[in-house]
């Protein structure tokens, strides 16, 4: 807030309020021009300009908080301001809710309002309030109509498969259609990594370490990476609704080329919209078996998680030791480091067996099922389109359309889940395709090790035979997940 004068006892203490935005009214007038016109009006009225409030590039209709506008209202409530001058009434408000708040405050504090282009705004009388509301309604209608035109234009572009504008999408140039190959390569790489079992947090960290940034130059976070990977536009698809909530409705093919094929995109989308996945990536595990190892205490079905052990005042300066503890109860613990080392050795030897690799790799029967699922999905999509056409022609009722749509969508969801699983399996991990898969596993990042552990081995930790005994591999019951 800029102080431009002292309050005079003989003159009405007034505030000048200026706002400039992208709206048509006053768009050619900068803040300085508005202030000069308002100050001249104050001089003619004999009002004392006690304060100047300016909100720059904030639309009154957008709903965003206007800090200077709120500060001006606070000054009116405090009795510091008794008059307000604006260039036009729509500089003050263009939303009905704001107008009603302003009317209430003006009535309570006998506020006088003057404008450069619309004259006096008398809110003390019923007719004056009616005029103010009419002006506000006209301004709101103008904005609503502009928004309708914009939505209609975007809807038409969507129908025609055109780019609808907005910030530059990662992977494409500013036109939204030309692929940026360096960024597209990042999308393909990250997509393959997620399908191979990597975590968003780990992939984002590696991108940052390489100096790769988002389209706005910001570092990657797991949520930013997630939002990019689940976009239908990566597969050359147009959509309505929120893709990040799993609410994207595909409306057709776009004019821009795809970065990844549709099956791959559907697989990564299905993987990343899982709420459990979202929580895990926000709190990335630091230990191999955290949440994977199971408790072997009789009657317990809990899993184990790593936690600091013996963190007392006497050893806080030393290297902290970690133990796995049962999440259901504190009835079982085991030293984390030797347990993980032993399990890593078992997994490394297990995946050196070609039969294990073959068992978790795609096979011919799976390929046949995937092909059948793809064909069935196209049939179901065509059936949905026919339902909607029949409803438009009046041959089916709304209730019939709703029931048929739910049935078809349920089957499509099942197919999408199978396709996602098949795609994750076909995204071959560099570990399994290495010359020595065991050595590659031991050298791999933790999230890859955890993904492979889940795929090939079940680990159960059983209670110790006697209290205080040393760690022993006999406490671990390991069972291969795949039969060879």
The low-confidence runs, each spanning 5 or more residues with pLDDT under 50, are: 1-9, 22-28, 157-161, 278-283
Largest sheet: 5 strands, mixed
Order of helices and strands: EHEHEHHEEHHHHEEHHEEEEHHHHHHHEE
Mean pLDDT: 77
CATH superfamily of the largest domain: Resolvase, N-terminal catalytic domain
Beta strand % = 5-15%
Number of domains: 4
Query: Under the CATH scheme, which class of the largest domain?
Result: Alpha Beta
Secondary-structure-based class equals alpha/beta
Task: Describe the overall structure.
With 484 residues, the chain is α/β, with parallel strands linked by helices. It has 4 domains: 13-141, Rossmann fold (3-Layer(aba) Sandwich), CATH 3.40.50; 181-282, Putative Large Serine Recombinase, Chain B, Domain 2 (Hect, E3 ligase catalytic domain fold), CATH 3.90.1750; 294-309 and 321-355 and 432-480, no CATH class; 362-427. The chain is built from 17 helices and 13 strands. The chain has helices at 31-45, 67-77, 89-92, 96-108, 126-159, 181-195, 200-209, 222-229, 262-272, 275-282, 336-350, 354-360, 364-393, 398-426, 430-433, 437-443, 446-456, and strands at 13-20, 48-56, 83-86, 112-115, 119-121, 237-240, 249-253, 294-295, 304-309, 321-326, 333-335, 457-461, 476-480. A 5-stranded mixed beta sheet has the order 2-1-3-4-5, sandwiched between helices. Strand 4 (112-115) and strand 5 (119-121) form a beta hairpin. Helix 4 packs antiparallel against helix 5. The longest helix is centred in the N-terminal third of the chain and has 34 residues, at 126-159. It is elongated, with a radius of gyration of 32 Å. The N and C termini lie far apart (76 Å).
């Amino acid at each position: 807030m800029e102080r431009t004068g002292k309050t005079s006892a003989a003159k009405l203490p007034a505030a000048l309020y200026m706002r400039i935005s992208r709206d048509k009214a006053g768009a050619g007038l900068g803040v300085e021009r508005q202030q000069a016109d308002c100050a001249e009006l104050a001089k003619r009225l004999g009002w004392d300009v006690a304060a100047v409030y300016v909100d720059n590039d904030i639309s009154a209709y957008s709903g965003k908080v206007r800090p200077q506008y709120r500060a001006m209202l606070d000054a009116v409530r405090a009795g510091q301001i008794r008059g307000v001058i604006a260039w036009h009434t729509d500089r003050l408000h263009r939303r009905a809710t704001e107008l009603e708040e302003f009317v209430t405050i003006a009535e309570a504090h006998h506020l006088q309002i003057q404008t450069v282009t619309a004259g006096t705004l008398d809110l003390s009388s019923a007719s004056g309030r009616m005029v103010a509301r009419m002006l506000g309604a006209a301004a709101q209608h103008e904005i609503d109509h502009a928004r309708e035109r914009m939505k209609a234009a975007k809807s038409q572009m969507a129908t025609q498969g055109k780019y609808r504008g907005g910030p530059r999408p990662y992977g494409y140039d500013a036109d939204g259609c030309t692929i940026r190959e360096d960024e597209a390569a990042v999308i393909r790489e990250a997509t393959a990594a997620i399908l191979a079992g990597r975590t968003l947090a780990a992939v984002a960290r590696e991108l940052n370490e390489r100096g790769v940034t988002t389209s706005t130059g910001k570092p990657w976070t797991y949520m930013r990476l997630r939002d990019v990977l689940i976009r239908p536009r990566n597969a050359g698809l147009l959509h309505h609704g929120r893709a990040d909530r799993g609410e994207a409705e595909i409306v057709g093919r776009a004019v821009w080329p795809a970065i990844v094929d549709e099956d791959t995109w559907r697989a990564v989308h299905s993987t990343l919209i899982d709420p459990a996945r979202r929580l895990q990536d926000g709190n990335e595990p630091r230990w191999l078996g955290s949440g994977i190892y199971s408790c072997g205490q009789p009657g317990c079905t809990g899993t184990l998680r790593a936690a600091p052990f013996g963190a007392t005042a006497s050893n806080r300066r030393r290297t902290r030791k970690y133990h796995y503890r049962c999440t259901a109860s504190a009835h079982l613990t085991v030293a984390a480091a030797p347990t993980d080392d032993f399990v890593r050795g078992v997994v490394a030897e297990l995946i050196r067996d070609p039969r294990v690799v073959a068992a978790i790799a795609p096979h011919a029967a799976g390929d046949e099922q995937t092909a059948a699922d793809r064909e069935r999905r196209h049939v179901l999509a065509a059936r949905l389109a026919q339902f909607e056409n029949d409803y438009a022609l009046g041959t089916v009722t709304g209730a019939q359309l709703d029931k048929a749509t739910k049935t078809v969508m349920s089957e499509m969801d099942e197919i999408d889940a199978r396709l996602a699983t098949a795609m994750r399996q076909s995204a071959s991990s560099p570990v399994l395709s290495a010359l020595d898969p065991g050595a590659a596993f031991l050298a791999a990042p933790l999230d890859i090790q955890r993904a492979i552990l889940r795929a090939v081995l079940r680990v159960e930790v059983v209670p110790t035979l006697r209290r205080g005994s040393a760690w022993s591999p006999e406490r671990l019951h390991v069972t291969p997940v795949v039969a060879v």
